[in-house]
Amino acid sequence: MEMDIEMIAMSLIGHAGESKSYSFQALREAKVGNFEEADSYIKKANEEMLKAHEIQTDLITKEAGGEKVELGLIMVHAQDHLMGSILFKDMVIEMIDLYKRVDALEG
User: Which is a GO BP term held by this UniProt record (predicted)?
Assistant: First the structure.
C-alpha cells in the first residue's frame, strides 16, 4: 500500500495545530485563574499531540522497515509545525505552573 504523503503530512499538521490551539486556550484560562479549565485544555492538547506522534512514529517505523518515505517540502513543514507545537505546549505548561504559584502567593 503506497502512502499518500501529502495527506499524512496534512494530518500531522492538523493534529499539531489543534494541540497548539488547545495549549493557547489553556494559557488564556490560566491567566485569569481558571486552572481547572487550563488543565482540561492541556489534556486535550496532549491527546492531539499523541495523535501527531502516532503518525510520526508510523512513518519512522515504515522507513526503518525499508519503505521509502518521501521527504518533500510539505513533510518538512509538517515536522517543523510539530516541533513548534511541542515546544509551545511545554512552555505553556511551565507558564501555567507559574500562574498557579502567583495565585497561591496572592491568595
Answer: phosphoenolpyruvate-dependent sugar phosphotransferase system
Structural domain span for residue 21: 1-63
From the list 102, 93, 100, the residue with the least C-alpha distance to 27 is 93
Q: What percent of the chain stands above pLDDT 90?
A: 90
Residue 1 has pLDDT above 50, yes or no: no
Total count of domains within the chain = 1
Active site residue 77: yes
Query: Catalytic: which of 15, 53, 77, 81?
Result: 77
Is 58 marked within a binding site?
Answer: no
Handedness of CA 87, 52, 47, 27 (dihedral sign): positive
What pTM was computed for the model?
0.90
Residue 8 within any structural domain of the chain: yes
Q: For residue 42, which of 68, 23, 29 has the smallest C-alpha distance?
A: 23
